[in-house]
Amino acid sequence: MITMSEQKDIIYFVTGGCGFLGRHLLQVLLEKEDTITEIRLFDKHIDLSLQDQSTERIKVVVVQGDITDYSSVVEVSQGATVVIHTASLVDVWHRVPESVIEAVNVKGTVNVINACIENGIQHLVYTSSMEVIGPNVKGDPFVRGDEDTVYNVCHEMPYPKSKSKAEKLVIEANGTKLKGGACLYTCSLRPTGIYGEQHQLMKDFYMMSVRTGGLVIRGVPQSTEHGRVYAGNVAWMHVLAARALQEHPRKLAGEVYFCYDDSPYKSYEDFNMQFLSAFNFRQIRIPLLLLWFLACFNDLLRWVLKPVHSYTPLLNRYTLAVASTSFTVRSDKAQRHFQYQPLYNWDECRDRTQRWVDTFPVDCIKDAVKKN
After folding, report:
1. 67, 29, 87: which is closest to 75 by C-alpha?
2. Cβ atoms of residues 39 and 269 within 8 Å
3. For a Cys-Cys bond, which of 67, 75, 150, 233 suits 108, CB 3.0-4.6 Å?
4. Tens-of-pLDDT digits for all 372 residues of the chain?
């Protein structure tokens, strides 16, 4: 096996490199890894300005491509030392056909694994999700759980199904012989609900409140706890895992790790509102049972309208189950196996995210209130 110190050119190939997590990963790699010579960002929707972040020692290359196109993945990953596979299609609102989710999340992962085999790339870190475990639609809590905690896994939505399949493929690929005779080493990271700068769901939560005239409807029990993790710390765990996978492959190979930091345990509603409080949204609390009926009505209406209209509201039975079920994890295993500690403490995570949220237009709220 070739170690990091022995290899001349260390090239990181990052799928989904221009996305939310990919951008945070790029920043952490540039700041914390002094052995890398090149970072290749592979994405369907590219941002060429990211190449301007190249330094004297690290070249940043942005390449447009589709993860479902095997030939593209093979071509662009040639010569890579490590693959960090973050590319994924997230949808829990029925906005994307199941076949498309399957193609991106499962077939795309197969393509990445086969590209590693074809190009002799020994190290693959996969970005999985807590949703490969839960929460399930039955509302079973998972409190301070770890990778060995027994849980009633019950997938109904295409997204968690696809992530579960993809993670299984990655773990089963560990130990596969590569062209040239080397061995593939893989591991998988399971972040809880990621937040931070450029987080689209937080922006969606804001825009939904704007459309309702500054009114936020709440109904999740105040005792509900979720584990949220800052994107920069998720990126840092990927960097540490990739580093350790190269230096001590047999310790991490074939393993899965929950990813969390020291962000406070709060419901999704409470967590988001602490950043959006400056907008003075009016909050109204309604019974959870009523929310459940609304979620069922939304699901029924989506099914009725499906032939003529795409009705995909944020609230459905699955998203309500996720929002109202306590789901928190521990990252002790990552700490034991590759010394993971959050790179950013809670104060830094909060301040970085808040500065971004403060750029949201206040005028939208004022206009919406006037209209109502």
Report:
1. 67
2. no
3. 67
4. 444 445 568 999 999 999 999 999 999 999 999 899 999 999 999 999 999 999 999 999 999 999 999 999 999 999 999 999 999 999 999 999 999 999 999 999 999 999 999 999 999 999 999 999 999 888 899 999 999 999 999 888 999 999 999 999 999 999 999 998 999 999 999 999 999 999 998 998 899 889 888 888 888 888 999 999 999 999 999 999 999 999 999 899 999 999 999 999 999 999 999 999 889 899 899 999 999 999 999 999 999 999 999 999 888 999 999 999 999 999 999 999 999 999 999 999 999 999 999 999 875 555 544 544
User: Are the C-beta atoms of 62 and 43 separated by less than 8 Å?
Assistant: yes
Return d(Cα 1, Cα 120) in angstroms, integer. 12
| C-alpha torsion angle, residues 301, 304, 310, 315 (rounded to 10) | 20
Question: Which residues have C-beta within 8 Å of that of residue 17, sequence separation ≥ 6?
Answer: 23, 25, 26, 39, 40, 41, 42, 43, 50, 62, 86
* CATH code, domain with 333: 3.40.50.720
Measured CA to CA, the distance from residue 91 to residue 73 in angstroms comes to: 23
Q: How many domains does the chain have?
A: 1
Tokens (6 digits) for 148: 């060995």
**Residue 282 forms part of a structural domain:** no
Distance CA 372, CA 214 (A): 9
Positions annotated as catalytic residues are 159
Does any domain span residue 39?
Answer: yes
